[in-house]
């Protein structure tokens, strides 16, 4: 799962695990394992925010995602704040098709 978080493709994860473990993991198995991250990310994204963030920044990056057997571009909307002590914290993120007003409203 950590390899996928760091941007390694499921095909490459399968190759690496086979080299390290001597066992072949299919792309489907790797995808299923990574699906276990969804509730963790959802819990983190819905956590209560504590403290003050006088500065708020929002941005989006685009990445390729595989969905229903095809690859397409999706935006990762990110918000982060700087607290009273000057420390930056990622406040939330959301994957969406675009940077539309509706997509940003859903993040906030």
Strand-pairing-aware structural class: alpha+beta
Give the distance, in angstroms, between the N- and C-terminal Cα atoms: 27 Å
By oligomeric state, this entry counts as single chain
Arrangement of strands in the largest sheet: 1-2-3
What is the N-to-C order of secondary-structure elements (H for helix, E for strand)?
HHHHEEEH
Output mean pLDDT.
Answer: 84
Q: What count of structural domains?
A: 2
Task: Count all strands and give the number.
Answer: 3
The number of helical elements comes to 5
The rounded Rg comes to 17 Å
**Level of helix content?**
25-40%
Query: Strand-residue fraction?
Result: 25-35%
Low-confidence regions = none
Describe the largest sheet: 3 strands, antiparallel
- The 3D shape can be described as elongated
SSE diagram, text form:
Layout: H1 2-5, H2 10-21, H3 27-35, H4 37-45, E1 55-67, E2 70-82, E3 88-96, H5 101-107
Antiparallel strand pairs: 1-2, 2-3
Helix pairs in contact: 2-3
Descriptive keywords:
2 domains; alpha+beta; single chain; 108 residues
What does this structure look like?
The chain has helices at 2-5, 10-21, 27-35, 37-45, 101-107, and strands at residues 55-67, 70-82, 88-96. The longest helix has 12 residues, at 10-21. It has 2 domains: 2-44, no CATH class; 48-107, no CATH class. It is 38% helix and 32% strand. Strands 1-2-3 form a 3-stranded antiparallel sheet, covered by helices on one side. The protein is elongated and about 50 Å long. The model has no long low-confidence stretch (mean pLDDT 84). β2 (70-82) and β3 form a beta hairpin. The chain has 5 helices and 3 strands. The chain has 108 residues and is an alpha+beta fold.
């Amino acid at each position: 799962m950590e390899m996928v978080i760091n941007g390694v493709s499921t095909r490459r994860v399968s190759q690496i695990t086979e080299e390290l473990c001597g066992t072949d993991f299919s792309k489907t198995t790797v995808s299923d394992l990574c699906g276990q991250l969804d509730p963790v990310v959802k819990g983190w994204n819905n956590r209560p925010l504590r403290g003050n963030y006088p500065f708020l920044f929002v941005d989006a990056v685009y990445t390729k995602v595989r969905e229903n057997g095809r690859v397409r571009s999706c935006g990762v909307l990110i918000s982060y704040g700087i607290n009273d002590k000057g420390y930056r914290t990622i406040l939330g993120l959301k994957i969406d098709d675009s940077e539309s007003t509706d997509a940003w409203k859903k993040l906030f």
